[in-house]
Recover the amino acids of this structure.
């Protein structure tokens, strides 16, 4: 009993063969059976039933449903949900019940989608394995001794295990695409600013991006169309109309120029991963795309630039957790100073503290120019490389991650080894571009992801290419053994 | 560059993070390794490049100057561990 596609479920609902309530109950049951994965921090059965009943009542009253009406799904626990605890994977926010909904939450609720709960994640979205969650690690449904990737690891595992047909995620340096690759699902990171960050707990504000993980590119398109668009409550929201990408998924690929960046196939890439990605590229070529050898000469600087800029922004964003207004408050403080420093030391996990300290250092007097300012110039260099490449090609392709899912605990003690897992994804965030990870088959029984990168605001072109690939292959339909 | 314990204490103080004495050395070597990663930035040729702070170089948009928020102070104060009479409570600052 696994989750079908959004379109298939919508057809069942439209024909009256299933009710939203039944779909919600099915998803809740699957979540219960899959509890050992630890993909959820909180199941909201009452909220799901109430929302499903409301959708069924609307449908009975003849209201015109959206394609998402009655479709069960899950939110990454980084999105504020009014009245439902939102932890961001942190002990700091263990008891935080937001008084408002994130824009993404509002949009999906008004489209009639039925949230069954909040998925597990690396604390404050800082991690590439989901092992940094205060609520325990998540197991990869393909091999429960392995990580699902991170930080949207719970969302990726929940979709891969068939618990829900889609889940929301966020991507600051690869946090949608890398877990999508590790779990064999499709993960869409839109252009920076396309989807509102309002109510999405901040990590690094110039990089943070909301998106979706689903079985297919077509399902990602349905959800993207529902959540994209200008929001005055997010100062960096882009004021341009979002195109309806779902309607543009039937374009032939003939003549589409796909740049194959040679830097993405370096010595760190596992042989099986390279083989699968080349097989997917050959399939795109068979569909009419033209493969073009390109170079992104500064790609190797992306990790260093990212791990200066993201922690610098995090050190500023996370200054708000002071034990005073909301979040964890120490019981040990004898002074205001201790209230701050002990609440933060008790509330934040070790990786979050490490990034706050690194960011504070990079922004401190004497080091600002050498680290932060220089990292921002390298960011420009990387963005310029992409701009030059997109003068020649329509999309850029490569492996989403250099390896398949690694073992739980394998890199947990080594921050630098963990950071290296983001080598192919962080540059995209630095440049603010949209990208998607698409399943490309298995290497030694584990999923491999093909990453497609598009120019800013060209989500439709990228989703179409992914969809055409998925029309011709069945990699995205492969499921882990139950 | 290399970090010593005093530098770690200083950064932790700026970040308002309490660090116990027995954590100092592991934290120092940890941060030192991450900072080594940043040496890579020095190898990039960034001559004549303007720092990129925001992906689209867009100007921030301005809202109309009208009140759009309602008073939610009671709801927000309810999130605090300690509040009284419409104020947040903290340990005594002035003796």
């Amino acid at each position: 009993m696994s989750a079908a596609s959004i379109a298939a479920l919508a057809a069942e609902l439209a024909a009256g063969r299933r009710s939203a309530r039944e779909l919600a109950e099915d998803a809740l049951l699957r979540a219960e059976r899959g509890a050992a994965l630890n993909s959820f921090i909180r199941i909201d059965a009452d909220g799901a039933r109430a929302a499903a009943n409301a959708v069924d009542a609307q449908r009975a009253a003849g209201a015109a449903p959206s394609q998402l009406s009655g479709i069960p799904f899950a939110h990454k626990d980084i999105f504020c949900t009014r009245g439902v605890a939102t932890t961001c994977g942190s002990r700091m926010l263990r008891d935080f019940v937001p008084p408002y909904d994130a824009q993404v939450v509002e949009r999906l609720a008004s489209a009639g989608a039925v949230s069954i709960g909040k998925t597990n994640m690396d604390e404050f979205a800082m991690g590439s394995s989901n092992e940094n969650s205060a609520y325990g690690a998540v197991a990869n449904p393909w091999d429960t001794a392995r990580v699902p990737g991170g930080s949207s690891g719970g969302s990726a595992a929940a979709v891969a295990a068939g618990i829900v047909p889609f889940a929301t995620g966020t991507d600051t340096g690869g946090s949608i695409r890398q877990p999508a690759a590790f779990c064999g699902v499709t993960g869409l990171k839109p252009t920076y600013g396309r989807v509102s960050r309002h109510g999405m707990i901040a990590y690094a504000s110039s990089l943070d991006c909301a998106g979706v993980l689903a079985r297919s590119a077509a399902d990602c398109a349905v959800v993207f169309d529902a959540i994209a668009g200008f929001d005055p409550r997010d100062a960096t929201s882009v004021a341009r109309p979002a195109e309806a990408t779902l309607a543009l998924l039937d374009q032939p690929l003939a003549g589409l120029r796909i740049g194959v960046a040679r830097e993405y196939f370096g010595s760190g890439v596992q042989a099986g991963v390279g083989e699968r990605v080349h097989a997917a590229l050959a399939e795109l070529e068979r569909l009419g795309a033209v493969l073009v050898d390109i170079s992104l000469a500064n790609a190797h600087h992306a990790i260093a630039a990212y791990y200066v800029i993201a922690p610098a922004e995090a050190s500023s964003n996370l200054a708000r957790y002071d034990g005073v207004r909301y979040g964890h408050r120490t019981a040990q403080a004898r002074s205001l100073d201790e209230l701050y420093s002990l609440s933060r030391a008790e509330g934040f996990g070790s990786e979050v503290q490490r990034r706050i300290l690194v960011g504070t250092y990079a922004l401190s007097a004497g080091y600002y120019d050498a680290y932060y300012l220089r990292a921002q110039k390298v960011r420009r260099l990387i963005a310029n490389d992409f701009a030059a490449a997109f003068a020649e090609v329509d999309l850029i392709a490569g492996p989403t991650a250099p390896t398949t899912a690694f073992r739980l605990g394998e890199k947990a003690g080594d921050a630098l080894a963990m950071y290296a897992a983001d080598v192919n994804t962080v540059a995209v965030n630095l440049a603010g571009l949209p990208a998607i990870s698409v399943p490309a088959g298995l290497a030694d029984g584990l999923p491999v992801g093909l990453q497609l990168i598009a120019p800013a605001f060209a989500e439709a072109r990228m989703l179409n290419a992914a969809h055409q690939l998925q029309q011709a292959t069945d990699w995205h339909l492969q499921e882990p053994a139950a | 560059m290399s970090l010593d314990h005093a530098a770690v204490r200083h950064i932790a103080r700026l970040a308002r993070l309490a660090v116990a004495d027995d954590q100092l050395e592991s934290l120092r070597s940890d941060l030192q390794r991450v900072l080594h990663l940043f040496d890579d930035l020095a190898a990039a040729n960034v001559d004549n490049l303007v720092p990129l702070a925001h992906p689209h170089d867009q100007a921030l948009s301005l809202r109309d100057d009208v009140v759009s928020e309602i008073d939610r102070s009671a709801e927000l104060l309810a999130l605090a561990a300690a509040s009284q009479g419409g104020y947040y409570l903290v340990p005594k600052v002035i003796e």
About this structure: The mean pLDDT of chain B is 91.
